[in-house]
Hints:
43% of the residues lie in helices and 0% in strands. By secondary structure, it is an all-alpha fold.
Amino acid sequence: MSxxxxxxxxxxxxxxxAKPPVAPKKRGSLTKRQEETxxxxxxxxxxxxMDMMRKLMKEGKTFTEAxxxxxxxxxx
Length: 76
């Protein structure tokens, strides 16, 4: 009966350096493309809905995220 040497532990994995952390979006203003998209979208929705979407997008939400939140809270 021979004793086997203890197994060595694999070194702990470090966080992947492939993707640097994404910088937070610049808040307070919308891009030209966002403004144009909101203008087209406004034909189908109330001012209250659009105001909420604009506010959420300025806070860094995407168009789709802002729309879903506005639909849930305010409606069309």
